[in-house]
Amino acid sequence: MNAEFIEAIHQLAKERSIDVSILFEAIETALVSAYKKNFGGSGNVRVQIDRGTGDMQVYALKHVVEELRQPHEEVLLEDAKSVNPTLQVGDMFEEKVTPRNFGRVAAQTAKQIVVQRIREAERGQIYEEFTNRESDIVTGIVQRVDSKNVVIDLGRVEAMLPHSEQVSTEAYRSGQRLKTYVLEVRKTTKGPQVSVSRSHPGLLKRLLELEVPEIHDGTVELKSVAREAGSRSKIAVQARDENVDPVGACVGPKGMRIQTIVNELGNEKIDVVEYSVDPATYVANALSPAKVTRVHIDEIGKIANVVVPDYQLSLAIGKEGQNARLAAKLTGWKIDIRSESQV
After folding, report:
1. pLDDT at residue 337 above 90?
2. Which DSSP helix (H) or strand (E) runs through 197?
3. Separation of alpha carbons 170 and 197, rounded Å
4. I want to staple 72 with a disulfide (CB 3.0 to 4.6 A). Which of 43, 234, 293, 299 is the partner?
């Protein structure tokens, strides 16, 4: 090993954003194994590389003892003191045992370790990058589609969109650009494994934060999200500034903000309602677009008994009960809807 090799390691560490000390330590550890394999060393040894010149030395590590029993692992106190007078029984004595032709073995081993460590470091960096992006949105290109999973290229890593996280009304095709929600990042022997979702309510939440500046800066707070992916969603918002209309901020001028999100989600309908600390008001708002006559709250049973005009009953319940179901999810209240004539 020489100065040129040391310079190359520094350059490589800089280009790949790897701590150079990690590379040196990995090479030294590997050289210990290479020494034992090629030169028959059986005791404890340590390899030291001069970080400046590339000079390399192998040291046998031996315990200082008064009576010698294991020559490969021990050294007599008087012999150790002849080299280093400060040593005492129980200390570790280092004896230089560098073989003459160790450089050739070292160079070959070092190359293998550098390549391996670079691969590991890159995997580690990708893992850290995407771990920090859990519960966030990433944009990628659909690489391939099979019967169950969709593989998405995120640039430095592939993500898996499992069947359970897909939206039944969406058709995925190779080359399609897609925004997804990062569910989980796991370490595997083949590198980081990223799982993403198109159906998670978090996707809608993050899209709102991207499109609505008032949510991003905290002027408008997103209180709750209820989603039936591909069909319909409801979101409840509240303004921290009384001069701001939270629903209007989310909908945007001429509905442009919410329409951008609707388009991204494949024309999924989105109802934006105003949150209220008063349960009756909140439940009435959540049943939008239906108009509610009155709401009676049963605190003990956590039930909201809702009365609507006769002509609004089907709208309040929604197709296959969807509107009422999403309102219940959004508010956390069980909702019982009746028309005025039924009451």
Report:
1. yes
2. strand 191-197
3. 12
4. 43
